[in-house]
Amino acid sequence: MTKPNNRGHWSSQLGFILAASGSAVGLGNIWKFPYITHKNGGGAFVLVYLLCVLCVGFPIMLAEIFMGKKSGRDPMGAYRYLARGSRWWPLAGAMGVLSGFVILSYYSVVSGWVLHYIWASAWGTFRGMDSAQIADYFNQFAANGTEQILYHALMMAVFFSIVVQGVKQGIERINRLFMPLLLVILVALTSYSMWEYSGMRAVTFLFNPDNFSQLSSHGVLEALGHSFFTLSLGMGAMITYGSYMRDDEGVMSGGFWIVLADVVISLLACFLIYSILFSFNEDVGAGPGLLFMTLPRLIDQMTGFAFFSSLFFVLVLFAAITSAISLLEVVVAFFHDEFKMRRSTACALSSVAIFLLGIPSALSLGPLSEVRLLGKNPFDFLDYLASNWMLPIGGFLSAIFVGWVVDEIAVRSEVARRWGALYPGWRWTLRFVTPVLVLLVILRTTGVLESLGTLISSVLST
Ligand code: PHE
């Protein structure tokens, strides 16, 4: 089997790096990371997170880019091509496609909230609101089923209209425009708020690691789990994007820049958000509501101009769109490669199906708020399923596959082509360190880890 040559390509290595960083940088960086870091007490958590990125995120990132680049296929095709005859490995790829499907269905709903907040803050809606009023505002908005479905449909239409134009004309073009803009807005807002507000407190909170005692084992595993989501790993996004690389482009260097961009942007988002948060003396809520209930009110109250918070949500929307299109592209590439569907048909079919799957999520805080799956509303259930099960399992399988199953010569010839000195260290980590750490996350999710812990402590105490 040779590589198919009837597929799209990035125009250059930079095009690939921008698109893949666009996939990685998303709501995970600007919404999730700041609030879980705050919850876990900063300092030590950030350090552990950086270690997770180094020992788990980066190795799997290279493994997935390699799989895509070497095979030139969608995730399922990539496993099939590289496993040469195994009937089971391609299922790992199919699970990745399914994860893309699931994640995008609720990611689109949250993107719709962001879009709404651009308008709402531009009109000064949050001016003078106290925390109860803005919480009410959000709850009412999220409970309005019709509005939620319309926003969800609108966002899916936006994603469709980008992806349908193809790899270079659609995905790459939008990333070339949005990613530099995102960086400019982020740096501008961050410098302003660090300068005007508690910039130094934000830095100390993030980089002072002497609070190790505050960090629970739960926090450590949360850091590990988050490194999958934020780097778009475990579901085939990097396999799919890697499959559009040209032969002479570097896997190692590409992966390095993507991971670096993702980490830097997460930290910048924390600087921005905490400088504002910390200069507020009242005890502000900083849980998942940080982005939609706490920040808009603080920004408005402190700066006094609506433009600032509106611009902030524009930034979040750019981040969300560039990630969402990578999720859609995984599903589109699958239908295109596996079923020989035309790109436009695959794109329309996937968008409609994902829209339908997203409806229960869109109604989760309203008409369907009573519905419970494993004790969670549909939205939380899908997020739990994807982030806690599908991505770690997908990441684990890709680490084992590239580390132990694929022919070493094939791996070396791609990955060591540039920056080859890093190859032995990468391979060793991918084979021996990454799978063990990921397995810990999975065991914790299944509850096995806790029972084991109780068993060990009871044995020790007898
Ligand atoms: N990495 C994205 C974020 O941080 C989410 C994502 C996950 C995108 C998986 C694609 C694939 O928001």
Quick structural summary:
The chain is mostly helical.
Percent strand equals: under 5%
What's the average pLDDT? 92
Main beta sheet: strand number and arrangement? none
Question: Whole-number radius of gyration?
Answer: 22 Å
Pattern of helices and strands: HHHHHHHHHHHHHHHHHHH
SS content category:
mainly alpha
Q: How much helical structure, as a percent, in the residues?
A: over 70%
Write up what this structure looks like.
The chain has 462 residues and is an all-alpha fold. The protein is built from 19 helices and no strands. Helix 1 packs across helix 14 (306-338), helix 3 (43-71) runs antiparallel to helix 12 (251-278) and helix 5 packs across helix 7 (145-163). The longest helix is centred in the N-terminal third of the chain and has 34 residues, at 89-122. It is globular. It binds phenylalanine. Phenylalanine binds at residues 23-24, 26-29, 103, 229-230, 232, 235, 237, 323, 326-327.
